[in-house]
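Q: What would this chain look like folded?
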Amino acid sequence: MTTTDTNKITLPARLRTGLAAVALAAAGALVPGCGGSDSGGACYDGEIQTSWVLTQGGQVVECAPGDEVDMRVDDDNHIFTFNCSDHAGSVPSVPGGQTHVLSFALYDANSVLLSSTGDMSFFLPCGVSKATPQVEFPLP
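A: My prediction, written as structure tokens:
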């Protein structure tokens, strides 16, 4: 018994390409971070908000004129500086859908390090503005 190709349907190349594109798009929507609603992949529409307080001897104290707070996001190429007396700051356009490593440092007007934190893991979903826990800078 032999098989013939008379029962095969041949689609034009443009239609095959179009169907392949639709299939890939549908598959991508099911993969986290590739256009679906899971937001598990990278995007660039996240924002990190932060706030801080200075303490000395267990009491909240004010920033001195010229004090600055640096927020480091992942590496030394992504350091954002805020006026300490604002007690808050935000960084827009941060890749979302991933965990970042944040650290904070308080400097005086002469760039002398006054206090710093260790590294903190911080997951930022896509498309949201998310606040870190309040950062405490203990002073001697």
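Residues 13-30 form the longest helix (18 residues).
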